[in-house]
Structure formats: C-alpha cells, structure tokens
C-alpha cells in the first residue's frame, strides 16, 4: 500500500481514476483479492475510529478534500499514520470508484483481516456465542454480527461454506461491530469436535421442535446454532444440538428471516444479563 514516490508520513493526493493505488484498493471488492492480500475495505469514519480503538490492523485511510480539516478525520489520519498506514486524499469520483457507490461516504479505510482460532474460544457460565452454519447472505451475516455486539454475546463462529465476513456488504451491515466481535471460521466436523470437548450447550432452532424458545435455562455456557437461510441446519448439526427450540408464529408466514430469528433468540438467551 505504501507509495515509494512520496516522503514518509506525507499525505498522498490522488485524483486520477487510473492510479495504481486506486486499482489495488478497488480490487478488494473481489473475494479473491481479499484472500490474496488479507485486507478488506470499509466505508465511513466510524468504522475507521472503531478499528483504531480496537487496535485493528489498518493499512490506509482515504478521505475527500471536503473533510480534510474536520477534527475527527484529522485525528484518525494522524493515528493511522502513527501506525505506519498510508493517508490518502482522494476526489469524490475516486472514492465512488473504490466503493462502487455513486454517493460514497467521505472516509474509507483499508483494514487487515483478523480471525480467532477455534481452539482459543472459551465459553463461560452465562456467556453466549453464535454458530452460523453455511450462512450465505452478507446482509444477514453483518446484521447478526451487529446484534451479537448489541446484546453482549461473545462472538460468531462461521461453520462450513459461508459468505465472506470481510465483504463490503457484510462490513457495511455490521456498522462497526465487526471490530468488536471475535470471528472464527471452521468446518462442521471440527466445530462439533470442539463443542463436545469444550463442554458447551448447543441450542438450535428447528421448525419441527416442540420446546418453546422462551423456556431455556440461560446460565449454561451456550452456543446458539443457526442454519442456512433456505435449508436450515444440516442433519448432523441438528442431531448434535442439545436443545432444539421453536419460535411460535401467529401469522401466515412459515419462517423468519435468519437475522431476525437470531436476534430473537439472542435477546432471550441474554435476557437475564440485560438491564
């Protein structure tokens, strides 16, 4: 990300859409580029500030000339520079190209990816983690990460083939919670082996379950397991759940959106810890 032509610590002004840095950052919209570089982009000063507060790796901050003199932008830019990141001033047309949006926010960050090893996950009494099996919708994933943050749950475990937690859509939907919520990626077999050895209770929702979700004892170390948007949990994951519950519905809909159902479950599981 560093520019060899500029003096160390200098702000690099970029106005050309063909600038190599623009090409490199714009490529992070593609999963392949994110995997190869271990980086991703996020839009908005709040995301940059949240990342800095959590000591998240940050490779660059880019902002429009219109906000260069705003105190919070200048403070964030100084913090990025102090950590060895690049500070880039870009025209709004360039920011629009990077973010693939006609009306981009005036600040964009380039961050390093961070995942927690499954072996390091410890679930204490009264704590809740969420395991998402084969979640495919980035908006759902981002909303769930934000909800996990909101209720004080401890983290999210992505099981099997899932959408990318560092995609632009997912990052945007987290509203900065991505930087506060530990993420884990693992396979189903590895997850089930870990759960067995970790002494956690697996709680899953299922359309054929008979146990009311409002009658779950909430102090046990718990992992809430939620399945794919269309198919739900796999049979192996369903069998592994210690408790299978249903969320009653009085209307004509036969199911809930994944993020909504996860939110309902999390608030119930955390009810005793929320004031």
From TrEMBL:
CDD domains: SpoU-like_rRNA-MTase. One of its GO terms (biological process) is RNA processing. GO terms for molecular function: RNA binding; RNA methyltransferase activity. Residues 41-117 form the RNA 2-O ribose methyltransferase substrate binding domain. The keyword Methyltransferase applies. InterPro entries: Alpha/beta_knot_MTases, MRM3-like_sub_bind, Ribosomal_eL30-like_sf, rRNA_Methyltransferase, SpoU_MeTrfase, SpoU_subst-bd, tRNA_m1G_MTases_N. The keyword Nucleotidyltransferase does not apply. GO terms for cellular component: cytoplasm. Keywords: Methyltransferase, Transferase. PANTHER family: RRNA METHYLTRANSFERASE 3 (PTHR43191), RRNA METHYLTRANSFERASE 3, MITOCHONDRIAL (PTHR43191:SF2). Belongs to the class IV-like SAM-binding methyltransferase superfamily. RNA methyltransferase TrmH family. This is RNA methyltransferase. It comes from Pleomorphomonas diazotrophica.
């Amino acid at each position: 990300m560093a520019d060899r032509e500029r003096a160390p610590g200098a702000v690099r002004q970029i106005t050309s859409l063909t600038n190599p840095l623009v090409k490199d950052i714009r490529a992070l919209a593609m999963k392949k580029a994110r995997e190869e570089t271990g980086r991703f982009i996020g839009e908005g000063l709040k995301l940059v500030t949240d990342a800095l507060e959590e000591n998240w790796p940050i490779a660059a901050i880019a902002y429009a000339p219109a906000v260069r003199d705003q105190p919070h932008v200048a403070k964030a830019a100084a913090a990025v520079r102090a950590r060895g990141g690049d500070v880039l001033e870009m025209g709004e047309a360039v920011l629009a190209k990077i973010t693939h949006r006609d009306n981009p926010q005036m600040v964009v960050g380039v961050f390093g990816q961070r995942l927690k090893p499954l072996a390091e996950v410890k679930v204490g009494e009264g704590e809740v983690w969420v395991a998402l099996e084969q979640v495919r919708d980035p908006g759902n994933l981002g909303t769930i990460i934000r909800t996990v943050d909101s209720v004080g749950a401890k983290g999210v475990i992505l099981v099997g083939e899932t959408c990318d937690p560092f995609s632009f859509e997912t990052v945007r939907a987290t509203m900065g919670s991505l930087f506060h919520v530990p993420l884990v990626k693992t396979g189903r077999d590895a997850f089930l082996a870990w759960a067995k050895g970790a002494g956690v209770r697996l709680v899953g929702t299922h359309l054929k379950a008979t146990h009311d979700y409002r009658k779950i004892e909430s102090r046990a170390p718990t992992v809430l397991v939620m399945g794919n948007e269309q198919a739900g949990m796999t049979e192996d994951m369903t069998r592994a759940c210690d408790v299978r519950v249903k969320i009653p519905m009085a209307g004509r809909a036969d199911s809930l959106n994944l993020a909504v159902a996860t939110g309902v479950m999390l608030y119930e599981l955390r009810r005793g810890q929320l004031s």
